Amino acid sequence: MAVVILNHALVSHKMTNIRKKDTNTKDFYQNVNEIAGLMAYEISRDFPLKDVQIETPITKTVQKELACDIVIVPILRAGMGMVEGIRNLIPTAKVGFIGMYRDEETLEPHEYFCKLPETIKTGITLLVDPMLATGGSAVAAVNLLKQKGATNIKYVGLVGAPEGVKTLEDAHPDIDIYLAALDEKLNSKGYIVPGLGDCGDRLFGTK
Ligand code: PRP
Ligand code: URA
Fold this sequence. Notes:
binds 1-O-pyrophosphono-5-O-phosphono-alpha-D-ribofuranose; two-stranded antiparallel sheet; globular; 6 helices; 9-stranded mixed sheet; alpha/beta
């Protein structure tokens, strides 16, 4: 449906923090979560609302509350870096998990885990993964979500390569793609340029 690059001064500033190679694990994780929260704030702007009757200390009144369930689905591992930031804003969101890793040689995605709440069938599913590189992992994750009954999927990533955006758009033209930045290209090893390196390793201090 749409590819949206979220332009926001704080997002740009924090993206620069995580791109710097000397940013340590703690600051990297914190900035990723903060960016995810800022993105969720923008993305949720038009989420459906319903009327509810409540009572303030003064009177009865009809006000608004979210009309549908929200499910956050991180692609493990790196997607986990975005969950806390979104849950801070939407504490009622349920969380599902898709475990997927990219073979370092072939760059093909391999699924190793899937646990999803039933509400993916009726609610809004935010599929979160910081890196949209070849797009293979995102396409496989959306395939799986659709197979399990998800009907309203939004992909939320931090950095996209043009190749990955095109692959995801071509395979799933019905989903919205939200990114904090669209980078130049992929290198010969499938890493995003300029990118930020291996996001999972940087989030969790591995390697
Ligand atoms: C990274 C990233 C995406 C995938 C993107 O995960 O978090 O899931 O690569 O690459 P693609 O668009 O070419 O599929 P990785 O496979 O390194 O696993 P990890 O998060 O466990 O480190
Ligand atoms: N996965 C990452 O973590 N970084 C990239 O640049 C590409 C895929």
